[in-house]
Amino acid sequence: MKIGIIGLGFVGLSLTSVLSSKDFDVVGIDIDEEKCKKISNGIIPFFEPNLEKMLKNGLKKKLKITNDFSIIQNCDIIFVAVGTPQNKNGSIDLSIIKKVVSTIGENILKNKKKPIIIIKSTVIPGTMEKIILPILEKKSNKKEGKDFGLISNPEFLQESSAIRDTKFPHVVVLGGNQTQFMKKAKKIFKKLHPNTPIIITNHQTAEIIKYANNSFLATKISFINQLSNICQKIPEANIDDIGKTIGLDPRIGKLFLNAGPGYGGSCLPKDMKALINFAKTSGINPTLLNAVEEVNTKQLEQIILMIKQKLGNLASKKITILGTSFKPDTDDIRDSISIELIEKLLKRKALITIHDPKAIENTKGIFGSKIKYSKSVKYALSKSQCVIIMTQWKQYEKLNNNDFNDMAKKIVIDCRRMLIKKQLDVDYVAIGLGKKN
Ligand SMILES: NC(=O)c1ccc[n+]([C@@H]2O[C@H](COP(=O)([O-])OP(=O)(O)OC[C@H]3O[C@@H](n4cnc5c(N)ncnc54)[C@H](O)[C@@H]3O)[C@@H](O)[C@H]2O)c1
User: Fold this and answer.
1) Any catalytic annotation for residue 415?
2) pTM of whole model > 0.90?
3) Are 99 and 30 spatial neighbours (Cβ–Cβ below 8 Å)?
4) Which entry of 26, 86, 276, 432 is 20 to 30 Å from 220 by CA?
5) How far is the CA of 8 from the centre of ligand 1 (A)?
């Protein structure tokens, strides 16, 4: 069984590496020739724990990487994991996936096998039936259900644990028509993940499940962030004790209850926008989802307000940002709140220095010489008038009085409450912490 995986980003490359290291005959396909060359040489194009080791394992076995799409003709299973970004108005941009399925169609025209095409990319309800299926049938001149199978298989992995999540997903969703291809797909996934629940449904339900999942997570984050704002008005209240306690209620669950600067990253913001846009075009007013987004936007304004309360006018003020990646253990800065914060501070003419253990190069790609970059936290803090801890990198937990010594003003704004238990000789403010009376 030959497996083709199209799109070697976080989702596609993780799947490619995991399947090939399990001895499957895998070919990874990407449009980006440079990226293909790097990956073929065992170099991963972004930081993801354990990915490099897994990829090198696969390359020692049968794994091949290519930008030649004609290889699709020999594949029994074709996964699609290309990006589905957002348009300016928040709606989903399907141009990449349309192009890819069109190429798949042209190639399965020449495929003597009856392949199964499995779409992992996140797509808005109706995309499979109304867009992807017609393109495939038209370009291949073949019929779904008879000559090839088409299955929705939304992905739930998280960056920073992509390999673990790919190996041990909490659920597998298979959407589509109940054909021989669906039976075969179910058998393959059952073998791959014997202990994982498999939900078999239709395309539209599979598509909306992914949005339901992400919008619920965004809701949990905005909920705890709104409560953190309330806590800041209650003397000595602590949002972490609240999150920990309500998280023990099995009806609530403990994850995604860490108050912070707001949700960011490559998925939650864009999927929220796409769902809101989809709801509106379907005639539904998404009141709750709009509120979740509004709370998220206001959270960043809260941080700016905290900085202004300490520094007044921000022009020419030296501000240090610790962490630009949207979460720890990744170098991904797509829709990172930290990047938005820097943009807003630059508009107010502040002088910015940043530190991040993995994301400096990506950050340079956005800001170039407009800000300063430091590989050492101590140097980043030197002469600074205010430091803002944005990303929960483990190393920031170790900060102590020594590190803050060279600051011009020792103002610490801790958006993650990482230093809350330390005895620090600084002016300390944290999100979700009520001041002492
Ligand atoms: N990143 C995540 O945490 C995550 C989690 C769950 C679901 N998803 C969804 O999975 C999909 C992929 O996300 P990602 O983060 O892996 O994307 P990504 O942007 O990291 O990677 C996409 C890859 O597709 C390649 N590509 C672009 N055009 C192509 C083409 N025409 N042919 C072949 N390859 C092409 C790009 O070069 C890139 O390597 C998206 O729909 C996303 O919403 C992502």
Assistant:
1) no
2) yes
3) no
4) 86
5) 7
Q: Calculate how far, in angstroms, residue 80's C-alpha sits from the geometric centre of ligand 1.
A: 9
332 in contact with ligand 1, CB cutoff 6 A: no
Could you read off the pLDDT tens digit of each residue along the chain, which spans 437 residues?
999 999 999 999 999 999 999 999 999 999 999 999 999 999 999 999 999 999 999 999 999 999 999 999 999 999 999 999 999 999 999 999 999 999 999 999 887 889 999 999 999 999 999 999 999 999 999 999 999 999 999 999 999 999 999 999 999 999 999 999 999 999 999 999 999 999 999 999 999 999 999 999 999 999 999 999 999 999 999 999 999 999 999 999 999 999 999 999 999 999 999 999 999 999 999 999 999 999 999 999 999 999 999 999 999 999 999 999 999 999 999 999 999 999 999 999 999 999 999 999 999 999 999 999 999 999 999 999 999 999 999 999 999 999 999 999 999 999 999 999 999 999 999 999 998 87
Evaluate: CB of 100 within 6 angstroms of ligand 1: yes
Which position among 36, 267, 386, 415 bears the catalytic label? 267
